[in-house]
Amino acid sequence: MSNHPTASRWSIVVLVLLCVSVFINYIDRGNLSTAAPLIKNALHLSATQLGLLLSSFFIAYMLGHFVTGWLVDRFEAFRMLLIGFVVWSIATILTGFAQGFATLFLFRLLLGAGESFAFPSYSRIVSQCFPEAQRGVANGSILAAMALGPAFGIFFGGLFMAAYGWRAFFIGFGLISLAWIAPWFAFGRKCVVISPPTTDAEPSLRAIMRMRSLWGSVAAATGQVYTWYFILTWIPFYLVNERHHSISQMAIIGGSAYLVTALSMMTSGSLADRWIRSGASPTLARKTFLCAGGTGCAISTMGCVLSSASGSIVFLLFAGFFYGTMVPNAFAAVQTLAGPRAAGRWVGVWNGLASASGIAAPALTGFLVDRTGNFILPFLVAASMALAGVCAWLFFVGRIEQVDWSQRATVIPGAAVASS
Hints:
Helix content is 80%, strand content 0%. The protein is an all-alpha fold and 420 residues long. It has one domain: Growth Hormone, Chain: A, CATH 1.20.1250. Helix 3 packs antiparallel against helix 5 (118-129), helix 6 (132-164) packs across helix 7 and helix 12 (247-277) packs antiparallel against helix 13. It starts with 10 loop residues before the first helix and ends in a 25-residue tail after the last helix.
């Protein structure tokens, strides 16, 4: 067991609010993918232009992490998450008014900048409010809500767009989501405020960047996240244009895949926590789920494109299941490595660099589809990246245990009293 304090009675309340925020986050993030067939036709976009639009979010999202990770560790995660939430909600509303490629590109950049506050804030809060053997469940809950966001967006959003158009959904959902602000003001600080102060050293960014485990985890996440962003951004278009499903059928199939992913995230996080409580090391528990999930995801991804129309649906569900086994344990692993006082910056660098896959996957897929006329090569690339992530977890990330920053870093002046 970790030496971190037991989760407080307010932790569950704050965790629920974090889950709601990431649910909204991923609906907003995935809306463009769900609307892609409609927007492509309405604005007369090529597949390459559509790929660039899907990538534009990740340009700001990736770069933003290097700033937001520092802000979250230096100031209140409560306040930083609130700022990001407001920015990304406004960006969603504005997207509904976009008239062409340029304005859509700009609003997606704004959305990415706002959402870059999310995961550094989540990780800072989780690392302080939950001990090691409860972080799988905490991260699993947040990430299950993350998967349910696209499930809701692709299912209900797809049906809504089919009936009322894509603009109405962007504007309406963006306005409704602002209701989250009130309960966050009321309860968002509860878990953080009651966390006892820590005397752990707070490392500089330079010290964090020197860690081999950071770069190993970045390489692992880059490979495996590529597969996720490929699925998130292109599967709706693939189901409609390549497999010839209707928008309503695409909504049901895609929504089901994300639902399976969410259930897998909850289950895998809980099982890994139980294994650790029974005596397994975090290294064994986390890496087992990470590597088994990555391998299964790669096999399922290739099966999706090589099988029949009905078989592709089954393999898509399996790909979602296996991806769900990886993600909670990846976040739990890096939160443990960083420790409570460095979690924001570590996750900022880690998730920021890994998000380069979010730029590469949509744009490269659009380019390959335009050049080859089909999705076989894009699926092969996605499967290969998932396997590369498995190799990185196995061979480049060391033991999953907190770095002793007192031996490796100089404490940042004033950091001991900086709240989060």
